[in-house]
Specification:
two-stranded antiparallel ribbon, single chain, 2 strands, mainly alpha, about 210 residues
């Protein structure tokens, strides 16, 4: 895959994520509120689960990490991470302006803030993503960035209006994130152990005697 294709892929990934996040937020609001009361029935329930899962800091960070991983090298990873978050931010606010029926301007304070954050955070997270496939401790730490980040956010700032609620869409969103973080961390650790296992131990495991 060429460098150009990788960068286009990063843009597409970010734009798709930003659009999906804005759409899930809009659907959650439209379907879940009736006369000011939140309902969790029909399509409102899955829409809120998706909204709570996508519209979180760790998920946005994961997009930049994934873009960096797809890019390959650290230099390309930094660029891909920035492009992915810039595209995600632009798509998110552009669709929000449509759903909220408000004018969209790249010069608004909120958009400028998140565009700057996309450049600063995207470059670092993109490099992290590019290091995921590296052997040894570097690859382990890079691979654990998203799972650990998700777990930390679940502890400090869990999604939903009621942090203590373990039922309904809020509880399911937290359960999904915790499960995904646990599985992701287990896969990364298992890969690290497999790549660092001594050759003699590998031979012993393969031998039938």
């Amino acid at each position: 895959m060429t460098v150009t294709a990788r960068m286009i892929g990063a843009l597409a990934l970010g734009a798709a994520f930003g659009a999906a996040t804005s759409l899930s937020n809009a659907l959650s609001s439209w379907l879940g509120l009736v006369d000011g009361v939140r309902l969790e029935s029909g399509w409102a329930w899955p829409a809120r689960v998706v909204s709570l899962t996508l519209d979180s800091g760790w998920a946005w960070a994961a997009v930049a990490v994934a873009a960096g991983w797809l890019a390959g090298s650290r230099a390309r990873g930094a660029a891909a991470g920035v492009l992915a978050l810039l595209a995600a931010t632009t798509a998110y606010f552009a669709l929000d302006s449509v759903f909220l029926e408000e004018p969209f301007t790249m010069g608004s304070a909120a958009v400028r803030y998140w565009l700057v954050a996309s450049v600063l955070c995207g470059s670092v997270l993109g490099v992290v993503g590019a290091c995921v496939n590296r052997p040894g401790l570097v690859g382990l730490l890079a691979g654990l960035t998203v799972p650990v980040g998700a777990a930390v956010q679940m502890i400090i700032r869990p999604p939903g209006s009621d942090p203590m609620s373990l039922t309904g869409a809020d509880g399911w969103a937290r359960l999904i994130v915790w499960a995904a973080a646990a599985v992701g961390a287990a896969v990364v650790i298992d890969r690290y152990r497999a790549t660092t296992r001594p050759p003699a131990q590998e031979h012993a495991r393969a031998s039938p005697h």
